[in-house]
Amino acid sequence: MGNKAKQKVLKTLNKGDENDKLSKGFDTFIMALILLNVAAVILETVESIHLRYGDFFDYFEIFSVIVFSIEYLIRVWACTAIEKYRHPVWGRLKYMMSIEAIIDLLAIIPFYLPIVLSNADGRMIRILRLLRLFRLFKLGRYSMAFGLVTDVIRKRKEELVVTLTLLVILLIFASTLMYYIENKPGREGFESIPETMWWGVATLTTVGYGDVYPITPLGKLLGAVIAILGVGLFALPAGIIAAGFESELSVRKKKKKQQNE
Amino acid sequence: MGNKAKQKVLKTLNKGDENDKLSKGFDTFIMALILLNVAAVILETVESIHLRYGDFFDYFEIFSVIVFSIEYLIRVWACTAIEKYRHPVWGRLKYMMSIEAIIDLLAIIPFYLPIVLSNADGRMIRILRLLRLFRLFKLGRYSMAFGLVTDVIRKRKEELVVTLTLLVILLIFASTLMYYIENKPGREGFESIPETMWWGVATLTTVGYGDVYPITPLGKLLGAVIAILGVGLFALPAGIIAAGFESELSVRKKKKKQQNE
Amino acid sequence: MGNKAKQKVLKTLNKGDENDKLSKGFDTFIMALILLNVAAVILETVESIHLRYGDFFDYFEIFSVIVFSIEYLIRVWACTAIEKYRHPVWGRLKYMMSIEAIIDLLAIIPFYLPIVLSNADGRMIRILRLLRLFRLFKLGRYSMAFGLVTDVIRKRKEELVVTLTLLVILLIFASTLMYYIENKPGREGFESIPETMWWGVATLTTVGYGDVYPITPLGKLLGAVIAILGVGLFALPAGIIAAGFESELSVRKKKKKQQNE
Amino acid sequence: MGNKAKQKVLKTLNKGDENDKLSKGFDTFIMALILLNVAAVILETVESIHLRYGDFFDYFEIFSVIVFSIEYLIRVWACTAIEKYRHPVWGRLKYMMSIEAIIDLLAIIPFYLPIVLSNADGRMIRILRLLRLFRLFKLGRYSMAFGLVTDVIRKRKEELVVTLTLLVILLIFASTLMYYIENKPGREGFESIPETMWWGVATLTTVGYGDVYPITPLGKLLGAVIAILGVGLFALPAGIIAAGFESELSVRKKKKKQQNE
Question: In this predicted complex, what is the ipTM?
Fold first, then answer.
């Protein structure tokens, strides 16, 4: 089969324009399948649902893996139509190393591995099941939300690194101080600095579960000061990401407008 | 009666300008009645108040329903004075399908339904009582706060959809990971992924009730990373809505200024 | 005594410029006295400190009241030097009705009232003691922080009213829904809608004490949706006030710069 | 040795440019050593790790102190090559009083002090160990994150002072009111105003551990009002610092761009 056919196949598989009905229909089918898979992974863990519909989930899993496997094989077969993956062997291997292809592979491999590894134990199978959630990333081809996050993080990398460094330093200092004040024999939650960091994170992010908190007057005083000062610093990455999103989205809106004109 | 009369009636019912004393007085009366109704719905649920003033609440309910019913009937009768609801039958039906009219209907129907449905059970009546709170939406005619929310959400729809998608994805990933780590026999709160999502929401929104939290070291480590990274993402919709409000309000302020000049 | 003398006295009492050493020294004395008074009100409530230094606190209270009383009397006497309080009787009464003078009066009256009202009971005296904290507002004359808040709130009044209205509506809806779902016999915290509002406030402000939280699956689902959507809305007033502060402070900075040039 | 040699030594010790391999290598070595030291301080507090690798930590401590001591001595010796520390005695003393040098000294002194003070007790040694964490500040020479914080705080000092003043006033008022309402015999957490402030901080920062919360209806009402109004004010410093960071980072980015051109 010629490159023309391969190009047509790829076009159908990828996000199609509004006019191509076949491509559009295929997109909808794959997206629905991905979302149903995610729903299945989530619902399967509910005991009562698992007991009742366990078989159905198994059949659905087999069906999904077959569809995703065929999709994967077709993509690997057709990728040579793209200039940079032209070579029949090296081009295909290069494509298989792309992030896109690895996500596609991770979406199906958890099914095949236990068959290959006959001696896979229960814990291994549990982790493999977890990998099924990577199917969600297949959505990246269709939704701009994924690309947006990557873009924002890339553009604000410097700011995020600086502020995250500051957060970690603040966390270390707050936790060390609190450890030295609150660490008493028989006192849970402050047995070591890493333990105390759990308090630190809960306080500085303002989650405040309430499983650990200072009880000595000095600890409370320090905790109050840390909370008042630190909360501001921990809101920084949120502010940076929010600003990044706003500007990125307005840029995209403008672009879209210009294209439509 | 001619259209003139209907138009006058409608003008009196709707938010009037400062000079028309009758319209102004009627507005105040309806707004006060709505607010008192909301207060009644809320206070009625307090056992001690219900026992003491139960009869009064019943009378007030009957009075309110009569007023709101008359208002509804007058509006349906008078709506033909508006160009697009001109037809005496179809125009009125069209008006009755408008959001405004449906809100007005929802405000009175919970009272009439139990009379019509003679076999309505206790649970049904409870839900109907809940519907009484929809009377609050009748305020939408008088307060710009309601319209503002609708406008902001419409204008920032795209941003909100993208960020809410991200939130849901983050929530699914965080909860799935935490489920695989913390799910142990006899451990409450992490029995299934949907269960674990309750922890996820409490953590990522920083509410942190403290009814569920990780206890294994690995779970705490993951919880800390999720809290630090995720809190930023969950603050995004807040930022977007806040920015939308600010710009929307400043636009309205400018308009008002220009009108006054 | 002439107006000249009164003007000089007022100038010494009020916030003086850097060069007038007497005025500057008096400012520092009054500010220190106010801060010490606040510290005294706070520390006095600590049992161990009260038992040990009770007498000292009483003497300090008498000393403070004497100083503040003399200050008040001098201000009332000298206010006639200001144009708008010129009349010896009506001017002085008008001054005594100004916010500034009322704050000054509230700062001393809790001391005199129990002497006048011979039959004041314990509860009355407790409330009068609370009023001593109003001395803190006397700082308003010296610190620009107080004026700033007033200015920001006045300028953003409209926005704040709209968003607070929205918050209250959201709170009412969230609490009513949650009440209908979670209200079961023997279930604490959801006995009535006002009770449930305590949960609503704790959730929507993300404080999350953990004394009440939904336990039914439907309640948790609704709680999660409310938390995700509502948190954004409850962050609005914070955003508006923050924006107001930023702009107000930059305006003041510019003004100060221009004055110094 | 001449100034040339000293200048070369200092250049090697300080953050070098990309081309000087020796300086670059030394930077990496010191930074790695600092980070390992921080990790050691943290991990040492974990009982199981301490029992197993205690000796290793001791050797690593000795090695680190030797390296940092030599670095300190070399810096003191070589500082005379810098114009302002030219004088062999006074210049060196002046250098030793610089923040940079004091941080370097604080990084090593906790090791030597117990040797000098033969009668240092357990508590003293604990505090000295805490001082080891100051080694983290040695990173300030290599990371711009530290300088950034200092700059932002300096530039927004005025705003931060005003808002922190407001926070403290709000905290005092909220806690005093709550103390008068919730203080009942046998009620923990509201025994005095300073005690109640712990509730105040936990509520206003939205941490909400849940160890103390109002239980009387009036206390809950006040707590709700404080939470709704106060949360906005407590988010102010966060907003100010975030805005400061954003503008500071964009200024630095621009500068860097101009330098590269």
Answer: 0.87
